[in-house]
Every structure is written in structure tokens, then in C-alpha cells.
Amino acid sequence: MMLNKKIALVAIFILVASSLMAGCGAPKEEVPKEIVIGMGIDLKVLEPVHGCPWGAPLRLIYETLVMEDANLEIQPLLAESWEVSGDGKVWTFQLRKGIRFHDGSPLNAPAVKFSLEYKVPAYRALYAVLESIEAPDEHAIKFILKKPYAPLLRDLSMSPIMSPTAVDESGEFKSPIGTGPFKFTEWIKKQKFVLERNVDYWQGSPTLEKVTFKIIPDASTRAMALEAGEIDLTGHMAGGGVLHVSDIQRLRENPTIKIVEGYTQPCVNWIQFNTQKEPFSNLEMRKAVYHAIDAKTIVSSILGETATPLLKGPFSMPSVQHLVNPNLMWYVYSPEKAKELLAGSGWEDTDGDGIRDRNGEELKVTYVVSSIFDPELLQIAEIVQAQLKEIGIDVELQAVEFGVMQKVFEKGEYDMMVQWGVCGHGDPSLWLNYYFHSKRGPWCAFKSETLTTLVDNVFSTVNRDDRLKVFHEIQEIMEENVPGVFLYSDANIVAMNKRVRNYEIEGGIHGAYLSLWKVYLEGQ
Fold it and tell me: Pairing between strand 394-399 and 364-369?
């Protein structure tokens, strides 16, 4: 009897041991801590470009001397401090010590000097006034300017630093090597862009081991991919993930989705007139059209809470409202005033067909639009078309690809054209220089030597109060001469799975992904 009990106990022991050993077999393959981000447009190059929208994902590889925070305030990054001479012509930055590039080479003043001088863009305002960049010691970098330059810190927040080892002996770019929290792994064009964790990152090793940017061109498809769990995050205009407003509204109601938003970069969405030819070479015509377009209705009916109408000119966006000239009225929505101005210019509907005419010629204009950056631009154009028809203007919409739109713009083959104007950083100087400086040739929205001089002064005037007066004078000229109709400013909107934690939108055009080094996914 005792023997049978012993046999039974041994059998039980063997059975339990076998079960435990089965559970302790070969270790399961761990799933990497990864975030998948949906992008609407692919990168063009892996090489950084100074002062341009060089691809928000690359900001995880390359860092800058300074950065803009969510309030568009300048914060130190690779540079820990800086000082400027009394005459505003010499800026000296002290670099943080101990930072290394991804390949182990040191971040020092010679490396920064190399990077900032690499393929210098001739059209950049900063480089036009830059006399030299010097490296007086291992951790100091000095900018010697020909004259004071007010937005220097803003421009440097857009100027990436890469290692000298990123180029070959002939000076040609070979691989992306920066100091950022993630390293380049793989790029399959039009499919995905993959980064891996930089465990030696100077601010601390990221929690995420892998960041994958998945290229999904269609905005609604991206939204559905987020809802299905195929991606974890999408959105942000400069992050290449702009969503349809209708999708954003649906995502807000989804309990598994979180929306983060903010006016973290100045953005002027407007209609540019071709002031070089009829009918918009006529000032009264431009004023009439401004009075006929109801920006408040456009925003409320199409964009909802995702935008703010620009009712007091281009600087009335939430991010730079402090620049608004309070003495100006601008052009309130008034179809009757618009009709009065047109009639005063000789435009009447003589044949009763609803379209005004003069000397036998009907009032017809073309409106060129491309919706590559904003899915709602075509809908907005249709509302504008309807509003102008109410005052007797026949508008022909021409929806084209972005590349075609650029060619049409350069040739001046348009009457009205939608313009999606991101200032790039928290200062409108770049936007002003792009559209209102006479050196821009056919790109210049309104040719005026006075306006060109004022735009130059925006760059060279360092004193804050004096600079504000320059911005006010620029707005006076714009209100008086009406180069276009300023419609609205977009909010940056990012939609993500609620598992994503610690995400924040930083400022500027590259602020979509700067906080990813602190992000983690709950449950990973």
C-alpha cells in the first residue's frame, strides 16, 4: 500500500515538473518597443537642408543649436547658452560638452562649423548677411554678421547639425549621422522610413526602441489605419500627416483615440491676387473681392475648431497676435460694398445673366488650387467661387498637382491662387521675405519698393519695439493695397492611440516629433 502511494507521488512530481519545464522552454522572441507613425508624403532626401522644411522625421536624427518650444519661445538644445555683442553683429554660442554623434565622433565647434557651412543655400536671409562662422575653441561657435539680423535664433532652430563623417572624402553626402535620439536604419521609398534607438543619447536613452514612419498618402486611409491599430499616431501639417476635418471630428469621439492640438507655428492660408495683370491690377477689384469673401463662414462650415479666421490681416493668427496693428479695420464681409466697388469700376450685369461685364467683356477669373497640404482647400475654393458669383464674378476653378501649380505661379498664368503659407518658425519674417520682397520676381505678391525696404528692416531691426513698428507699417501697406485675401490659420493637430504617453507638440515646422524620445506606449 505504501509502495503504491510512493509511486503515485513520484508520478505527480514528474507530471508537475514536466509542465513547468514545458513553460520554461526557449524564451519567446520579445516584440520591440515600437511606435508606427502615419505620414502622407515621403521624405525627399536624407541630407539635412539648412533653414528649410527638411522633413520632420529627420529631426529625430539631426538636432539644432536651439529649438522652439510649444509657446514658440527659444530654448537651448545643442548650445547651452549664447550671447550677442552690443552692435548685434557677433553671436557666440557655448556648446554642451560630452555629446557625441551616432558614430561616436564628438560634437564640437569644428563639427558645427562644418555642418553649417555644408552646401550653404544662397537664398537664405541669414547666409546673405553672414560674414563668417568661427570656432575659437573646442566648444564655442561664433557667427560674425555683416549687419544685425533679428531672427538669427529662429533660423538656427531650423538649421540641422550633422557629423563631418556623414560625407565622403570628396564632400558628397553618404549617410545620415546626427546627435538625435534615434539613428537611421532603413528607408524604402514611398513605403516606410525606420529609425532605431540611440541608447547613448545625451538627454537619456529613449524608451522606444524603434520608430517606423509608414507612408499612407490618403488622409482618410491614415485615419482608418489609426482606428484599426495599424498605426499609433498621425497628423501635424509639417509632419506630413494632415487629416480631413471630418475624420478629426470622428476621431474625437473615438474612446481609443486622443487628440493633441495647438497653434505651434504661424500659418497663413490665403488667396494671392495676380496684381501684375487685369483684373487684379485694379485696386478696387481687389477690395471688392476681399469684401465678398466670408472667412468666418468658410472656417465654421469647413474647418470648424481646427482653424481660426484671419479677420485682422495676416498676423491675426493665435501664435503671433501680438504683432497685429490695432489701428487697422481690414475688410469686413459685405457683398453690398463689393457690388458698389465693382459698379464704381464700370462692371455691370447688362444682359441679366448674373455675370458682370464691361465694354462687352464678361468678368471672368481663374482660381488655381492644389490640395496637397490641406485636404479641404478644394472645398474652400468652391465656397469662394460661390461667394464671388453672388457679386457677379465668374470664377473658373483649376485644381492641379502641386508641381503644376508652381509652374503656373512662376509664369503668372493665374488670376487668383491659393497659398498655404507656413512661416517655418515663430517669426513671420520668412513668410514676408518669400511673398513680399521684390527680389522674388514672379513670386512677389505685390511689388513695392517701400514694402521691400520694410521687409528688409524686419530682418535688420533688433530692438523689439522698433521692430513692432516695422510690422505695423507692413500691415498698413497690405491693408491699403490688398495683395490677397487672408483667410485662416491652421492648428497643428495630432491624433494618436491613447496608449501613447508623454507626447507633446513642440514649436516650429519641425515640432511634430521632437518629444518622441520621451514617449512610451502603455503595455509595451
Answer: parallel
Tally the C-alpha atoms within 13 A of residue 267's C-alpha that lie toward its C-beta: 23
Tell me which of 32 and 42 has the higher pLDDT: 42
All residues at 6 or more sequence positions from 369 whose CB lies less than 8 Å from its CB, including other chains: 377, 378, 381, 397, 398, 399, 400, 405, 417, 418
382 vs 375: CA distance, rounded Å: 13
Distance, in Å, from the CA atom of 191 to the CA atom of 217, rounded to the nearest integer, reads: 10
Q: In terms of DSSP bridges, do strands 484-490 and 307-309 run parallel, antiparallel, or are they unpaired?
A: antiparallel
Q: pLDDT at residue 10 above 80?
A: no
φ/ψ of residue 427, rounded to 5: -140, 130
| pLDDT tens track for 57-102 | 999 999 999 999 988 999 999 999 999 999 999 999 999 999 999 9
User: What CATH fold (topology level) applies to the domain 267-490?
Assistant: Dipeptide-binding Protein; domain 3 (3.10.105)
DSSP letter for 280, please.
Answer: T
What is the model's pLDDT at position 423? Answer: 67
pLDDT at 6: 44
Domain ranges of the chain: 63-113+121-166, 182-263+492-521, 267-490
pLDDT tens digit sequence for 408-448: 988 999 999 999 766 668 899 989 998 999 988 888 899 99
Q: What are phi and psi of 10, to 5 degrees?
A: -60, -40
Contact between 521 and 35 under an 8 Å Cβ cutoff? The reply is: yes
Nearest to 420 by CA among 371, 471, 351: 371
Mode of pairing for the β-strands spanning 210-215 and 34-39: parallel
63-113+121-166: in CATH 3.90.76.10:
yes
Burial class (CB in 10 A: 0-12, 13-18, 19+), 343: middle
User: Rounded to an integer, what distance in angstroms lies between the CA atom of residue 62 and that of residue 265?
Assistant: 20
The domain 182-263+492-521 having CATH identifier 3.50.50.60: the answer here is no
Strand order in the sheet with 233-235: 182-188, 192-197, 210-215, 34-39, 233-235, 492-497, 257-262
Decide: helix, strand or coil at residue 221: helix
Question: How many beta carbons lie within 10 A of that of residue 24, not counting itself?
Answer: 8
Q: β-strands 416-422, 267-273: how paired?
A: antiparallel
Stated pTM of the model? 0.87
Euclidean distance between CA atoms 416 and 475, whole angstroms: 21
Of 180, 159, 154, 21, the C-alpha closest to 99 is: 180
Please give the grid coordinates belonging to residue 235: 497628423
* Alpha carbons within 13 A on the beta-carbon side of 253: 4
